[in-house]
What we know:
Elements: H1 5-8, H2 21-33, E1 39-44, H3 50-62, H4 76-83, E2 89-93, H5 100-110, E3 120-125, H6 132-143, E4 149-155, H7 163-166, E5 170-174, H8 179-192, H9 199-208, H10 213-223, H11 232-238, H12 244-256, H13 259-271, H14 276-295, H15 310-317, H16 322-339, H17 345-357, H18 365-376, E6 381-382, E7 385-386, E8 443-444, H19 451-461, H20 464-467, E9 476-480, E10 484-489, H21 492-498, H22 501-515, E11 520-525, H23 533-538, H24 545-552
Helix pairs in contact: 3-4, 5-6, 8-9, 9-10, 9-11, 12-13, 12-14, 12-17, 13-17, 14-16, 16-17, 16-18, 19-24
Amino acid sequence: MYQALYRKWRPRTFDDVVGQRHITETLKRQVQSGRLSHAYLFTGSRGTGKTTCAKILARAVNCQNPQDGNPCNQCPACLGIENGSILDVLELDAASNNRVDDIRAILDEAVYTPATVKKRVYIVDEVHMLSTQAFNALLQILEEPPAHLMFILATTEIHKVPATIKSRCQQFSFKRIHADEIAARLRYVAGQEEIQLTDEGAALIARLADGGMRDALSLLDQCAGEGGTIDEGRVRGILGLAGNLETAALLETVADGDGAQALERLDRLYAGGKEMAALASELSALVRDLLVRKTAPDAGAGLMTGGYDETTMRRLAGRFDGPRLVHMLRVLQETGAGLARSANRRTDMELCLITLCDPALDPSPTALAARVARLEQGDISMGGKRQPEAQAVQPPGGQETPAAPVMEEGSPAAPAVYPAAGSREETKAEPSPAPAPADKGGQALYHWPGWAALREQLKRAMDVGDFVFLGNSAMVEGSWDGRELTLWTANDFIRDQMNKPAITGAVAQIAQQLMGGPVHVAARTGKAPADEPQKAAASQEEPDALEAFLNDNQGNVIVE
Length: 560
């Protein structure tokens, strides 16, 4: 009779357990020295070896001829425990035996000494499923256990175990097994079973197992069912990962900003029986992989989920920047979490895709940060489609003038923004009357030639999320009256954001270095006062203090 690989290759000694050396070495030393606890609590995710180590420990403490802390698996005690003929070692599933009567039955027989072995061992799997009354009954014997009794509790949800139980147990946390260790074990098992498994196929199965050795062996067993060589392509075909190409194609329509095409693809998937929650999960996994690839291009290979081939990942990675991926992942996570409570999941998913195609529809700070990042890269867009770049105007005098800024349709007219002195955007224009100096009052900051340079310093010193409003002249304007630096905002929400200490402090610190004294910064709702032409003409010969200061200290202004 055929036996599944995960059962056939279950470790029989501590040395065979993969990826949990920090636990197996401790248990071996305790068995060797005889310093055994009356209760152990094994925690960790599925398939990492909790129940396996519990069974090995139960044999080791009763073994008649232990080998360096490992059971010999040959003496009558080891063989009897392994085949279930010795009733003094009992494995209990708390998921189906969670009543207080089940625990009381154990307590009634626990007082008797074992008949054929040294210790009576109870292995309670999924112990977090016990009822409150059952936990109280278990606590009674854990407080004053007989010398011949040992409990080994295992759970995947440690937060559901009462603190009174945890405090009376030695707790061991099983970690997820690294993909390289899983792949090495798969190659060994495949060699023993005469399965033709390539290194690429083993690596893909190891990533798909998500740190669980049992899952990895089950996937290998499934792929080996048809025979032949198991390579990366065969694993994808057998496990149904080829359907992920539809998910990747859907994300490409998001990259194009084509909402109509995205809705058409979603309709085809919905008609084909695709669950919206599963689609949101697949898109989240794909965007997460792209973000990991952007953040750690060299060391992130082992962090990938493995559901997509390298060609697809390379093509999609070039379509998105980091801020937009962060925004997309948050939108998908929020949508996926809300689908379980939604009355119309298809509508929620359609709204999610439309928002991803056009970030302008999302007013959140993360979406604004993503849009600013795209603007900085020259991707000035409406609905994700690149707008033609403005061309510089050639005046009759032969000198170029700055190109007019490209405005989004429906946005308020924004004042002209001058480039920082010495920057690549600086142009050689005919000299114009200098604006009023800072100490004469009544001059809007965004009309200073040095205001753009000041914003550049703030951009270097502040986080993207804090700078997103300051970087948009249509949202924040400034004025200086000789004593107070006022940030005029388009609405009350932006005013509240600008009045945060992190923002006012950053602006005040740079302005204080210029003025040579304390500067008060405050944000208000409204429009900045218009500049006065007569003051600008009167100060034609007076140098701009802010521009001179920032030119002399280019890149040296740092805000803590």
